[in-house]
Amino acid sequence: MSLNVHGDRKYAGSVRLAGLAEWPDMRIERRTIQAGSQSDLTLECTEIVMTIAGRSAVQRTGNGNKQQSLARPGVAWVCPIGTVEREIVLSEPISTLHIYLPQKLLGERALEDYGLNPGCTELAYVGGFVDPKLNLIGTSLAKLLDEELGPADRLFADGMRVALVARLLASYTADRRTRSAQAPALGRARLKRVLEYIDAHLGDELTLDRLAEEARLSAYHFSRLFRDATGLPPHRYVTLKRIEAAQEQITLGRRSLVDIALGTGFGSQNNFTRAFRKATGLTPGQYRELRRKG
Known about the structure:
11 helices; Arc Repressor Mutant, subunit A; globular; Homeodomain-like_sf; Tscrpt_reg_AraC-type_HTH
């Protein structure tokens, strides 16, 4: 089920640019928002807006809280679900990135892992700020709009969504967070179980949520702990393991490149070729020829 987003209604005079990435718990799009008044409405999901290009004076009112700011590249706004927005006015057109998130940013397991009080995870209606960490996450997600999405991209998007939620909860909640007991460690046994699961399911879709479930942790907590333990984020580790498996299959010479691409979880030969070249500097075909000559 996709998110019930409000972009087309909120920015009625805007142009949504080509490229759209969407999952059940996140949607990403780019827009050019024209100068003038935007539509009044109640937000049906949480929206993060980041300025890509242009400069404009921005006025908006959320739940009676009137704000004025200057939009320029890097400036962001947080628009929590349920906010009644009125009097949104831009002095000049700007290009923007929009990230939509569901009502529940975190599941129950994540709340338990971090000792978060559910009542303290409500986001604040804030805007007109520059946050380098938030911008880095937004820039990484925006790159997905220009690519053919494969299984590894889904895993990458999951990781970026976790990082985004972590940043929002760390800096933009309406109330201060409360933390109870120390968060659990990944531990050798849990890490071993996850790594063995990855090796056994390289040909399947490996989502961040599924790997976190194998570790008996929330995706929110698992992503950071996995990187601390391996030195790589989950999506990068899985991609490299798939490349290693593909190299072994190519060396054996018993299967076509298409079969290898599908059997190692890349989804298509195009995704396989792109990931293989990025990791090795060679296409799968070039690597096969090199191994034959060797």
